[in-house]
Specification:
heterodimer; A: about 240 residues; mainly alpha; 2 strands; B: about 475 residues; two-stranded antiparallel sheet; 26 helices
């Protein structure tokens, strides 16, 4: 099925090095935040207690969680800063922006899954799953940062906010963490590791490269723009080679 | 067969001879004068009157006299001026004076040096120097005098000991103080130890032995005596070894309670199911705390309503292994203590109290941190900071009902309490604590709505994601 022509072997750069580095930071920081955070949320579990004691007690765990929170805050702000300067001064495309197409594509794909459409939707640089995941996590990140800071500085927070904000922030922090954890652990890990499209792993965020064949299949619109070829040509190519999506 | 009959006959003959020999010996031993005196003194109702109005019965039980060690003596041997013909009238001020005179008669034969060889007599004679004359007849009786040793006089050991210890006797201590040695028979029979004999506790003492012991003070004696209890109640004894009272005592504070201080000695009774019992005992040394407790919501219910649900001293402090309540270990255990009742619907439900108080505490910062500090102290032996527990806000012995206290006062007190640890806490900050209430729309709408939003959104999201994944895989499989 897989063709071995030189054209198909060709790799296309999908992510710049800074994105690869950023993703590594995100893995490490969010990983530590999840481990130290969940062990506090589910502190009655033996595993959590073991971990807390291994890390030298709850005070250490809280301290580590807060330091990592600061690192996460910096990571998020750097990301937003780069994105804003990129858009403002380097004329980056707003490729992550959610638009009407994403919703129609989502409906289209659902129809395709259940057999009401013959072909899947065609995507540009990011498909609707990636966009929704990105925005879900970015908004979640802001909520986590804000509620986390309230929990870290409850007395200062109540100088200008009602006292109730503290338990509300606690509720939000713990639930939003669960939400992000679900998105990453289920949705992201499925799409990046276990999905039949990429199994065993989608390496593009680590190498920065993607095969032309996958580009043609998953992001045909972007590929067409890159190669100046007609959209129809790319679509035809990808469907001839691999008729799944 | 013949042999058997013969030996039986010999045995029978021996028995008859023995019995008759005994009888004749006893009869022969009673002197003639006795017969004369007994003409009158064998009758009931003869009374000797004293000047102060007291009297004594002049009846003599002939049977008992014949069984006594003095059976060989004639009446005038002791009653000197009396004989078959002579019956002088003597005057005594009181019954006591008469008996003292009688004792002097005994001591004409039983010389002091002889008598004093026995510790118990020596003890008794010490009292004589203080003007309290020991009367021979108190213990030995007058006409039925028997040899005391061997316990022949009495039916059992307790009676034997009581024959002296029912009388007013004193144990003298080196510091000059003394202690009454008389034991109330009714105390003994009503006590939990009614089936024990005296020597079961007072080992070393018996009808044969009565060792003389010397103690510096009465407290020394009590402390030494309380060591006896562990012979049977070893489990309780080992518990007391862990107690603050014991450690204080071993540091030299002799005021700390010993077994008998709470349980009594000869009157030691069963103490189960008596809420007031322990409170009254603890009160003896801790009167201030008792007063505070009596004014608390628990104390009022105990004393005013005889409520059986409220905690008393021992419910929190334990009974024998009472620990230092000022330690962090004790402080950590306080939520557990309160939970014993306040997490038990069967107990607090009756009073319209919610069991949520424990759950809400444990699931919030303080409860969670407390639990983890406890763990890490045990596992890592890492010193922990004190964390606010129930008593830090509600008070310890002075716990009052939050219903009886105006809400404003509760808030004001709470803020002060918060500021003890959170120094710059403001009035608004204390609202961060939801006062044991679960989030509700009316009380804490913000928390309730955030909670609710996530509770709805999270399952929907989860379901959507799984549906997407399922459909994706399904489409993939169909296409293949």
């Amino acid at each position: 099925m897989l063709s071995s022509g030189p054209d198909k072997e060709r790799k296309i750069r999908r992510f710049r090095t800074i994105r690869v580095v950023e993703h590594w930071f995100a893995i490490i920081i969010v990983g530590i935040l999840v481990v130290t955070g969940l062990s506090q949320k589910y502190y009655v579990l033996n595993l959590s207690q073991w971990l807390i004691l291994e890390l030298g007690g709850i005070d250490n765990v809280r301290l580590l969680h807060r330091y990592m929170g600061v690192a996460f805050l910096i990571l998020t702000f750097v990301h937003v800063f780069i994105a804003m300067t990129g858009v403002l001064f380097r004329r980056w495309q707003l490729s992550m922006m959610i638009n009407r197409n994403d919703f129609t594509n989502a409906v289209h794909n659902l129809k395709y899954y259940v057999g009401l459409e013959k072909t899947p939707a065609q995507f540009d640089r990011y498909d609707f799953k990636q966009k929704f995941e990105y925005w879900g996590i970015l908004i979640g990140a802001f909520l986590m940062i804000v509620s986390g800071l309230i929990l870290w500085f409850p007395i200062q927070a109540t100088h200008f906010l009602p006292g109730e904000i503290v338990p509300a922030a606690k509720s939000m922090h713990t639930h939003q963490a669960t939400l992000i954890f679900i998105i990453i652990a289920i949705w992201h890990i499925y799409n990046a590791l276990f999905s039949p499209d990429v199994f065993p792993i989608d390496t593009s965020i680590f190498t920065g490269m993607i095969s032309r064949e996958r580009m043609a299949r998953e992001h045909p619109l972007e590929l067409a723009r890159m190669e100046g070829a007609s959209r129809q040509q790319i679509l035809q190519d990808s469907h001839e080679k691999k008729p799944e999506h | 067969m013949k042999q058997a009959i013969l030996s039986f006959a010999v045995f029978l003959l021996g028995m008859v001879l023995f019995a008759s020999g005994r009888a004749s010996a006893e009869n022969a031993a009673v002197p003639d004068t006795v017969g004369k005196c007994m003409v009158c003194h064998a009758q009931r109702g003869i009374v000797k009157k004293f000047e102060n109005g007291e009297s004594i019965e002049a009846y003599v039980d002939g049977e008992k006299f014949r069984a006594s060690v003095h059976r060989a003596l004639s009446c005038p041997a002791c009653h000197h001026d009396f004989s078959g013909d002579n019956h002088p009238v003597r005057r005594f001020r009181s019954r006591k004076q008469f008996r003292i005179q009688s004792t002097l008669v005994c001591r004409q034969c039983h010389k002091d040096e002889e008598v004093m060889k026995k510790t118990i007599h020596a003890n008794l004679f010490q009292q004589e120097q203080q003007g309290d004359v020991p009367l021979c007849t108190d213990c030995h009786t007058a006409h039925a005098v028997a040899v005391i040793s061997g316990g022949r006089l009495t039916a059992n050991e307790t009676q034997y000991c009581l024959s002296c210890h029912q009388h007013h006797m004193k144990l003298q201590f080196k510091d000059g103080s003394d202690m009454a040695l008389d034991v109330d028979r009714s105390d003994l029979s009503a006590s939990a130890h009614s089936k024990l004999g005296c020597s079961d506790c007072h080992y070393g003492f018996s009808s044969e032995e009565h060792p003389q012991r010397n103690f510096r003070t009465r407290r020394d004696y009590s402390i030494a005596s309380a060591e006896i209890c562990q012979r049977c109640h070893f489990d309780k004894y080992t518990q007391t070894m862990e107690s603050i009272h014991h450690s204080k005592q071993s540091q030299g504070d002799l005021r700390t309670p010993i077994c008998t201080d709470c349980h009594g000695s000869h009157a030691a009774a069963y103490v189960r199911d008596e809420k007031n019992f322990s409170v009254s005992r603890c009160r003896k040394c801790h009167p201030d705390i008792y007063d505070t407790y009596a004014r608390s919501v628990h104390g009022k219910a105990l004393f005013n309503e005889q409520n059986k649900d409220v905690p008393v001293c021992i419910d929190c402090h334990k009974v024998h292994n009472i620990k230092n309540p000022l330690t962090l270990e004790f402080h950590e255990r306080i939520p557990d203590m309160c939970s014993n009742c306040h997490a038990n619907k069967a107990i607090v439900g009756k009073y319209g109290l919610s069991t949520d108080v424990v759950k809400t505490y444990l699931s919030d910062f303080h409860g969670m941190t407390l639990g983890l500090y406890k763990k890490q102290r045990e596992a890592l032996s890492k010193p922990a900071r004190p964390i606010a527990v129930c008593t830090d806000c509600h008070g310890i012995h002075n716990i009052s009902s939050t219903r009886d206290t105006p809400a404003a006062v509760v808030k004001e007190n709470l803020l002060k309490r918060c500021q003890k640890c959170h120094h710059d806490a403001t009035e608004k900050f204390q609202d961060a604590w939801l006062s044991h209430y679960k989030p509700s729309l009316s009380r804490t709408p913000l928390v309730f709505l955030v909670d609710m939003a996530y509770r709805i959104f999270l399952p929907v999201l989860l379901l959507g994601l799984f549906l997407q994944i399922f459909l994706h895989i399904w489409r993939y499989a169909v296409n293949r």
